[in-house]
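Most newcomers find our protein records easier to grasp once they have seen one. Read left to right, the backbone structure tokens trace the chain's path through space. Once this layout is familiar, the rest of the handout is easier to follow. The record below serves as our worked example for the rest of this section:


***
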Amino acid sequence: MTDTPATAATFPPPLDQYPVHAGASMVDVLAARLDVFPFNGVATTIFIAAVVHTLTAHRFTALSHHVQHESDRRRRAAGLETAPSVAGELLHFLGEVEVVFGLWAVALVAAMVMWFDWTTAREYLTVSVNFTEAMFVVVVMAIAATQPVVRLAERAVGKLAELGGSTPGAWWLSILITGPVLGSFITEPAAMTICALLLGRQFYARRPRTALKYATLGLLFVNVSIGGTLTHFAAPPVLMVARPFGWDLGFMAGTFGWKACLAIIGATLLYFAVFRTELTELATRSRATRDEQVTAAAEAGEIPGWVVAVHVVFLASTVALAHYPVFFIAGFLFFLGFVQATAPYQAPMDLRAPLLVGFFLAGLVTHGGLQGWWIAPVLGRLTDTPLFIGATLLTAFNDNALITYLATLVPNLDAPLRYAVVAGAVTGGGLTVIANAPNPAGQALLAKYFDGGVSPLKLAAAAALPTVVAAAAFLLLRF
């Protein structure tokens, strides 16, 4: 073996340049790859630190509240006015899930510069890493969250909710079944944004119990992850493999889509049966949060149909041009101008959540581009059902689009294995915030309804049942 040249042109080294060790154990293969390119160990160590930080972020948030409370107590005892605590604000910043991977990306870039040089780090970020998805999510999330689009979606879903008397339970069922399927047509990030906003207004604002809050969030994440599989162009993990594998619209709908729909309906009805009593009781609770009052005030007037139509055109064109940031960013600038011109029919645009989610995804792909050295051989050694399970578990700690992309690099991957890795990747997309690109958008919009932030362990537990239902649909209906 020879050392891989530490130059920008070979950073990271292509997977096909690693030596092949036929019959070697996985430990030996990974050790050999570390010997060829030792920086792999540094990059993965930093990535693991980012994952651990993500899973413990809510503890930083809780600690920041404690520190701020103690600071306020001491200042009052000293006869001073309360003021933000620097330590508390810093801890709160470290508790923001959306900034975690970006923070650790700074550490990764610093490590690149120290290990190699600035040119290597610069070329990796500007050439090797593709930030198109992160930019697209910012734009599509911002457009989908505007008042005209949400009002249109709410009216459409409301027609279905009327079949159940427009109760909170009927809204809950309508949003969680129909919303995720829209992800196959308007993209998963847009579907997640609309579903999260509608759930916030029609469900979370009524203050359900903690168990139901988490069950709903876990169900939403899983349903959106699998709901994008009816087409070959809307879900990032499917998009990564559609062209290399030769999968078209008919193949996706016939191989994945109908199974996903069954799983979505089955898991949602199952949770509805478990929480039916509380969902019924929610009808007696008013939506009294400040956010809901602001929303109600913004909806006092009617929005002209032409304004709604223009919003839909901007949303559709953004989706159609999702792979061309020059066009969808330019379109977004025109959209912002239109929103300003039609201000009487608009609610104030809040770009904080879209920008934070984009920052999260940008950090995630920065780390993910250096994890192929160990993920690819792991995927390449598994067969059928073990590959499905492995992809499901790996997805919990890596964006599922990365898992499916790396599968395209595994040589001689036959049809059953291709099915297994994609089915597993979308099945595990609801287990953690980092498992599927739209999840951070959902969490950013709904975190305010969870005291102390969203607990990763409670989220994983809540997503476990719908994940099992999805796994059963994809594994037992393989024909």
Summary: DSSP finds 24 helices and no strands in the chain. The two ends are 44 Å apart (CA to CA).
